[in-house]
Every structure is written in structure tokens, then in C-alpha cells.
Specification:
This protein has one helix and 33 strands. It has a five-stranded mixed sheet with strand order 1-30-29-28-27, with no helix packed on it. A hairpin with a 2-residue loop joins strand 17 and strand 18. It is globular, with a radius of gyration of 20 Å.
Length: 361
């Protein structure tokens, strides 16, 4: 699988648009029909995932040489849709019944539909929304405001925690994890419970009985919810901006010179390294971002300098989608079906890459 696509071929697979600032977040809606890009200035732009000229329809096999070719697009790309002007958006999340929810620097919260319509859910209140999460079933909102965490149900709010939250995440069973300076708080129907951790901060991931997150500075941690057992993996060369709990279950993280991947059938407790999955190759530069395919044992990740790679978990072979160009990839996300990969760069490029079946063979 050690292959490379030329930058021109990636251009043929991708739709890309230029935004006014670096891309800070990329997110697909629950149906995988729309993608939302947030830039570092708080601006939003929506794109439809459906493509009038998909790469799969522009590919053909040359019979005489047995080589796959792909023709360029014949029509101009549709522009991204910019929702009506909103206060600078600082956080966003997916709504389970469709669309997105975004929190502003003025404390306001709005729903954004896949077509770009905006509905106000919370008026400006002065305090910025620093992070937010959505309950996976009923759509209840959790907001991180300065010095406190709030649950919002309909038009009512209740403070559930007085702490400065770095990140929020709901589990499938509705438990809410809050990453704070003193550790991670787990909020259930009972009183919030603190698990002290070394300098916990975002990002944060929950899946089943596991919670994982990044440490302030460098390194990651893994917590087993029921037992309270903790693994701390320090010493990364750079901060982990991506911490994921993929199917398997597998812990995946950026920040090291090789993608960090760990089978949670054998978690890294008490120094046990038997669950480590050698994924991709080691490099002289660190892995900066990662995204796990929703149904396959596949992960996309970027390296410092802008290289973009696909690899199978536990396999050293790589498929290089984009050689390093010097422009950092700042965000990566798979669509729910896994057919598309959204990405953003430090120069403001927002892109949607179709991954044809041939890539997975």
C-alpha cells in the first residue's frame, strides 16, 4: 500500500474552496449530506456532500494498458453557502436529528440547518461559549462557559459543574465528560465524579467504557469508566490535537513521530505495551491530525509540512494522498459513510475528498 497520488490526482478527487482564514473545524451532519467548515475568525461555510461530477463517475480503465485514469471536471464547482452573519463562532457540534449547533463568542447559540438557515436557541449573554456537546439521542446541549458547565434542555439551563472546562463530550449512554484543569469530571444521573488526571485538556473522546483525551503540553491519557483505571502516555514531541476512540475498540492519537494506535482489547495499563498497533511508518516529523474511518480499520492522518496519508490500523503500509507542501493540515474528518474526507489547512483551504472504492483495495 506504499503508494502515492500526485497532487494533480488529489485535485481531481477533491473539491476545494478558499476561505478567509485557517480552517479550525470540519464537521459532517448526522446524515452525511452536508459538511460545515469553521475558520479561525469564527466564520462558517456549508457544502453539500453530493457531487454532480463525482470522481467515481469520471474514472475509467484504459483497456490497452490496464491503467485507471480520471478526467477533469467539466463544470465549475458550486460555491459554499455562508449562513446569515453570526457572532464569531467558537465551537460547534452535530445535532442528532439533522444540522448543526454553534456557540458564539458572545454566548449565543444557534442551530444551522444543512441548507444554511439559522435558528437562535440562546440569546447573547456576554460569556463566550468555549465548548459544547450534544446528547446523542435527545439533543440536549452541554455548554462550557467561563468557570462553569451548563446543561440546556429546551429553554431552561442548569449549572452542573463549577470548573473551567477545556472540552465536553457525551457518551452513547448520555454520560457527559468534562475535561478541566483538575482532571476529567464524569456527569451522570448521580453527582459529578472527578477523576484526577495530569493536566487534562481537550480534545476529548468517549466510547463505551472508555474516555480518552490529551494532556496539556504533550501526551495522552486513557480512563476506564467503571474501574477508574488510568493510563498516562507522556513524552510526545508535540501536543495531541486529535484523540479518537475508533471501532475495535482502538485508541488513536496524533502528536508522535508515528501515528499512535492501541487496541483496547489490551489497554496500556501498568506499562503493558502489548496492545500497540504499528500503523504507518515512523517519520522525522510529527503526526498532526488524525481521523478514523467509521466502518473500516482505516485512518487518515497528516504530518507536519502538510503530508496526507491513509493507512490500515496495525499495518505499516501507507497510501500518500498528498505529499508535504509546507502548508499545514489543520483539520480532518470522515463523513458518516466513510466515502468522503473533509479537510482544512492553515492557508484557509477547505476541501472535500471523495475516496473511490479503488483506494480501499
Amino acid at each position: 500500500m506504499n503508494q502515492s497520488f500526485s497532487p494533480r490526482l488529489l485535485d481531481l478527487l477533491a473539491r476545494s474552496w478558499q476561505r478567509p482564514a485557517a480552517i479550525a473545524e470540519v464537521m459532517f451532519d448526522a446524515a452525511g449530506a452536508a459538511v460545515l467548515f469553521r475558520d479561525a475568525e469564527g466564520g462558517l461555510a456549508l457544502g453539500a456532500v453530493a457531487d454532480g461530477e463525482p470522481a467515481s463517475a469520471r474514472m475509467r480503465m484504459e483497456g490497452d494498458v490496464g491503467r485507471m485514469t480520471i478526467r477533469p471536471r467539466r463544470r465549475a464547482l458550486p460555491t459554499l453557502v455562508e449562513p446569515e452573519p453570526l457572532p464569531a463562532v467558537a465551537a460547534m457540534a452535530v445535532l442528532p436529528r439533522g444540522g448543526f449547533v454553534v456557540g458564539g463568542a458572545d454566548g449565543s447559540v444557534h442551530q444551522v440547518t444543512p441548507r444554511g438557515q439559522v435558528v437562535r436557541l440562546r440569546a447573547a449573554a456576554g460569556d463566550p461559549v468555549q465548548a459544547l456537546a450534544v446528547h446523542p439521542v435527545d439533543g440536549q446541549l452541554a455548554l462550557a462557559l467561563p468557570g462553569r458547565g451548563v446543561l440546556r434542555d429546551g429553554g431552561t439551563e442548569a449549572t452542573i459543574l463549577k470548573a473551567h472546562a477545556h472540552a465536553l463530550a457525551f457518551a452513547e449512554d448520555g454520560a457527559l465528560a468534562v475535561s478541566a484543569a483538575d482532571g476529567v469530571w464524569l456527569c451522570t444521573a448521580k453527582a459529578p465524579r472527578l477523576h484526577p488526571l495530569p493536566s487534562a485538556q481537550g480534545p476529548l473522546a468517549l466510547s463505551g467504557r472508555w474516555i480518552a483525551g490529551a494532556c496539556e503540553g504533550a501526551g495522552i491519557w486513557l480512563l476506564e469508566r467503571d474501574s477508574g483505571r488510568l493510563a498516562h502516555l507522556p513524552g510526545f514531541p508535540t501536543a495531541s490535537r486529535s484523540v479518537l476512540l475508533a471501532s475495535g475498540p482502538t485508541l488513536v492519537a496524533s502528536g508522535a513521530f508515528r501515528l499512535v494506535a492501541w487496541s483496547l482489547d489490551r489497554p496500556p495499563f501498568a506499562g503493558d505495551h502489548g496492545g500497540a498497533l504499528t500503523t504507518g511508518t515512523a517519520s522525522a516529523v510529527a503526526v498532526t491530525r488524525a481521523a478514523a474511518h467509521p466502518t473500516r480499520d482505516l485512518v487518515a492522518f497528516s504530518r507536519a509540512g502538510g503530508e496526507l496519508v491513509l493507512a490500515r490500523l496495525g499495518r505499516p503500509e501507507e497510501l500518500v494522498l498528498l505529499p508535504g507542501s509546507g502548508c499545514e493540515i489543520t483539520e480532518l474528518a470522515f463523513a458518516p459513510g466513510g466515502r468522503h474526507l473533509g479537510l482544512g489547512t492553515a492557508s484557509g483551504t477547505a476541501a472535500l475528498v471523495e475516496l473511490p472504492d479503488m483506494i480501499f483495495k
